[in-house]
Design brief:
Layout: E1 3-6, H1 15-29, E2 33-40, H2 45-50, H3 59-65, H4 73-82, E3 109-112, H5 117-129, H6 137-142, H7 144-155, E4 160-167, H8 173-181, E5 184-189, H9 193-207, H10 212-215, H11 222-229, E6 235-244, E7 246-247, E8 250-251, H12 253-272, E9 289-292, H13 295-304, E10 314-318, E11 321-325, H14 327-342
Parallel strand pairs: 1-4, 1-5, 2-3, 2-4, 5-6, 6-9
Antiparallel strand pairs: 7-8, 10-11
Length: 344
């Protein structure tokens, strides 16, 4: 099975939310597969949603972060830091089952929980990767999450395994670890020009390709280092135009214009660099997924930790407030997100 990193160099585009949708819907429709969510964002938003949504006391997160060792991705990183160049086979102690805390989540979904300690550890990770001995220190460190994925695949035995990796917008060392562990990159974006520029940054940071200013730094780029060390980089898989404003069932003119600019950008890069894409023969813009804006459903799902397949129309109680989810917009929302999940 495949591994998918959810990443954009811009925050607030719905990476964690779409990762939650992808993981829960895939686990629901593939009960014979194991779905692993690796939360490499120190904010831990996808973990919080999987563990039951917004919880003012954060009981579930505290249970995992206060375990000894920490039952989080930071716990795994801490053990790697203590012995950087030795594989860890006993990774089960860092894996939790969200259904133990949130009975809405399928039992075949597992979590490497996010942890704000990850940000504190990032400098230690970076320094370890720069050690002079062994000669391949960077390659070994940058592969820590890829090593974790391999061990989790072994843990699943004969069952298929699929991986969702949620990443921070920054290109921090822990983001690079997550990208190296992924086969594919899902790039959510919103219809604004800052998203278009962020997508250009994604390609520049991953592959060292960009404008004349980018080329100045090509010799010290992540891409160059990865090629020199024989580290396989992920491929661009799907672009998701998220929170599209609709008018009479169609994207508004403003959204349409910006969306076309984004499409032109990725198609232009595809013409010269098809190898960057998971499906080289497919024109990237032809496979864009558009997800309409349905703020009420999005907030309800994220706040309560309810998978989309369990969301029904009608009145809902949300933190003491009554909201209404209407049938038609909910059906359109579900259909768009199903189209997205079907591409995985």
């Amino acid at each position: 099975m495949s591994s998918y990193a959810f990443w954009n160099n811009k925050g607030g585009v719905g990476k964690s939310f779409l990762g939650f949708i992808a993981s829960t819907e895939y686990a629901h429709t593939h009960p014979d597969a194991d779905v692993y969510v690796i939360d490499l964002c120190p904010q831990g938003n996808i973990s919080e949603t999987l563990l039951g949504g917004f919880d003012i006391d954060a009981k579930a997160l505290r249970t995992l972060t206060e375990a000894n060792p920490r039952c989080t991705i930071a716990g795994y990183i801490e053990e790697r830091l203590s012995s950087p160049f030795r594989m860890i086979s006993d990774v089960g102690k860092y894996v939790s089952r969200p259904s133990d805390f949130n009975n809405n989540i399928p039992e075949n979904l597992f979590l490497l929980c996010g942890d704000n300690l990850l940000e504190i550890l990032s400098e230690a990770i970076r320094q370890t990767s720069q050690l002079a001995v062994p000669f391949d220190a960077w390659k070994q460190v940058i592969s820590w999450i890829a090593d974790l994925v391999k061990e989790l695949r072994l843990r699943s035995g004969d069952r298929d395994a699929m991986f969702i990796i949620d990443l921070n917008p920054s290109f921090a060392i822990y983001t690079q670890l997550g990208l190296v562990a992924a086969d594919n990159v899902i790039v959510p974006f919103t219809a604004d020009d800052s998203s278009r520029r962020a997508i250009e940054n994604v390609i520049a940071l991953l592959f060292g390709v960009g404008d004349k200013h980018t080329q100045v730094y090509a010799k010290i780029s992540f891409s160059k280092k990865a090629k020199e060390e024989g580290v396989v980089q992920p491929r661009l898989h799907t672009f998701v135009s998220n929170r599209v404003t609709l008018y009479d069932g169609k994207p508004s003119k403003a959204f349409k214009v910006v969306n076309e600019r984004v499409q032109a950008t990725v198609d232009r890069i595809h013409e010269k660099h098809r190898s960057f894409y998971a499906i080289p023969k497919e024109k990237p813009s032809s496979a864009f997924v558009q997800v309409p804006d349905y703020h009420g459903a999005c907030v309800y799902v994220a706040t309560t930790g309810t998978p989309l397949h369990k969301v029904t129309p009608g009145p809902k109680n949300l933190d003491g407030e009554r909201i209404q989810l209407n049938q038609d917009p909910l059906d359109r929302y579900k259909a768009a997100l199903r189209e997205f999940v079907d591409r995985l």
